[in-house]
Design a protein that fits this description.
CATH topology of the largest domain: Rossmann fold
CATH class of the largest domain: Alpha Beta
CATH superfamily of the largest domain: Glycogen Phosphorylase B
Strand order of the largest sheet: 3-4-5-2-1-8-9-13-14
Shape: elongated
Radius of gyration: 23 Å
Mean pLDDT: 95
CATH architecture of the largest domain: 3-Layer(aba) Sandwich
Structural class: alpha/beta
Strand content: 15-25%
């Protein structure tokens, strides 16, 4: 098949979150499976064209937008079997950040990503790509299927092209004033509550939901959760209407990149067959943190964004009880000012048991995954989550709130003794979080640690590669083709 991806970020070229991880991993796997894959990206200033080898093509197009047209250029790169196309616009993309600055989102994000969506399709025609599937991601590319089903609906070039739309985080919806709608040049009859209008505003995300042939999100549990409040974020009616076309597919991870057998950033390599090196990683992490711990004191790691969505509110309220369990805790992350201040206060109060790094450092993150005994993810909601997958790969048992991808990927050791790989709590509360950590401590301190060791080996042997996820996407693509 010919598969065209339209997305606003892609690792390693430009990244703010999990969307970039998916775009950096899924297309190459699809290419390995024999499909022709093209990725359209905004040509951001932050992308290092010389480093990666992007080359200008000389292609120039005028893209309709608002009352006129805007200029489009093109740079290209063949990367891991995938054609990566940068849609160049100095006016819209030559800025220091992807979506905004310290003062907030860019005021013209509505025009920037309407341009990106329309330009994607104009360029597709100009280059003769003629895709079987156009797979768009999140609100920034939500207008792509809307344009295909309205402006290009009678264009024979796109006859037979099917649309697929993936939601990575419903909390971001691309809402703009109603005055935005005429700028898109989508027929005004489409501005209704059943289509692109959302409480008097224009929703680019809703456009993707309404006009795409199939929808997906990044875990089965999250696909269910978004059909109702509170995680529907006002869109639950749309999902209820389209529930027969909505699928949940858990993300994978790059198992070559995240590999404790070859990771040069950690103190000692190890595997599920021989875990001796993990003890050396634990000792190294304790030294780096300036902490001391008996062998019976579990070292719990967190690599997280410091905000309420990630469960920082209930975590901070549970710390006193967690400290009574005689655990050691290391936290790496950045986020809101209030959480920075609270975490600094907690570190000072428990300076012999807690170490906080208010930064992000990739090597240190790897050392925390490898050196911690358990990995805490108390997220309020988590569409998929990658931290728990990486933690299991490195033999750190996840302690998670039962939501989204955390619920789908972590089975509780106490509830499922033969298949459990972590500790799960259902109620979103400090008490439930502390109870789950307490259960983990009990298992860690059991004589012989048979349950713990068995769970660790099961976790490390789990297959979280992208192959399974990619095969599921292909099944759905093929289903669209048959339709």
């Amino acid at each position: 098949m010919k598969i065209l991806f339209a997305a606003s970020e892609m690792d390693p070229f430009c990244k703010t979150g999990g969307l970039a991880d998916v775009l950096g991993a899924l297309p190459p796997v699809l290419a390995e499976m024999g499909h022709k894959v093209v990725v359209m990206l905004p040509g951001y200033k932050v992308i290092d064209r010389d480093k990666w080898g992007f080359r200008p093509t000389g292609v120039r197009l005028d893209v309709p937008l608002g009352k006129g047209t805007r200029h489009l250029g093109l740079s290209t790169l063949s990367w891991n079997g995938v054609d990566v196309l940068l849609l160049e616009s100095e006016e819209f993309f030559w800025r220091d950040s992807l979506y905004g600055d310290i003062d907030g989102d860019y005021d013209d994000n509505d025009e920037r990503f309407a341009f990106f969506s329309r330009a994607t399709l104009e360029l597709t025609k100009n280059l003769g790509l003629k895709p079987d599937i156009v797979h768009s991601h999140d609100w920034q590319a939500g207008l792509v299927p809307a344009y295909l089903k309205t402006v290009y609906v009678d264009d024979p070039y796109f006859s037979g092209t099917k649309t697929f739309f993936t939601i990575h985080n419903l909390g971001y919806q691309g809402l703009f004033p109603k005055e935005t709608f005429p700028k898109t040049l989508i027929p005004k009859v489409e501005f209704t509550w059943k289509k692109m209008e959302y409480w008097g505003k224009v929703s680019y995300l809703k456009a993707g939901l309404v006009y795409s042939d199939l929808l997906s999100t990044v875990s089965e549990a999250y696909a269910d959760e978004i059909t109702r409040e509170p995680l529907g974020f006002g869109m639950q009616g749309v999902f209820e209407e389209r529930k027969e076309s909505l699928y949940g597919i858990v993300n994978g991870i790059d198992v070559d990149m995240w590999n404790p057998e070859t990771d040069s950033a950690i103190a000692s390599t190890f595997s599920a067959r021989t875990t001796k090196g993990k003890k050396a990683c634990r000792e190294s992490l304790l030294r780096k943190c300036g902490l001391k711990a008996a062998a019976s004191a579990p070292l719990v790691g967190m690599v997280t964004r410091l905000d309420d969505q990630k469960g920082l509110d209930i975590f901070e309220d549970s710390v006193a009880r967690l400290m009574s369990l005689d655990i050691r805790l290391v936290v790496l992350g950045t986020g809101s000012k209030k959480h920075h201040e609270t975490m600094s206060t907690l570190e000072k109060r428990y300076n012999d048991r807690i170490k906080v790094f208010l930064t992000f450092n990739n090597d240190l993150a790897r050392q925390i995954y490898a050196g911690s005994d358990a990995f805490l993810m108390p997220s309020r909601y988590e569409p998929c989550g990658l931290g728990q997958l990486i933690a299991m790969r490195y033999g750190s048992l996840p302690i998670v709130h039962a939501t989204g991808g955390l619920k789908d990927t972590v089975q509780d050791v106490d509830q499922e003794p033969d298949s459990g790989v972590g500790f799960v709590f259902d109620s979103y509360s400090p008490e439930a979080l502390a109870d789950a950590v307490g259960r983990a401590v009990v298992a860690f301190r059991e004589k012989g640690r048979r349950r713990w060791t068995a769970a660790l080996k099961r976790a490390m042997n789990r297959d979280f590669s992208w192959t399974n996820s990619a095969e599921r996407y292909v099944e759905l693509y093929e289903e669209l083709g048959r339709g």
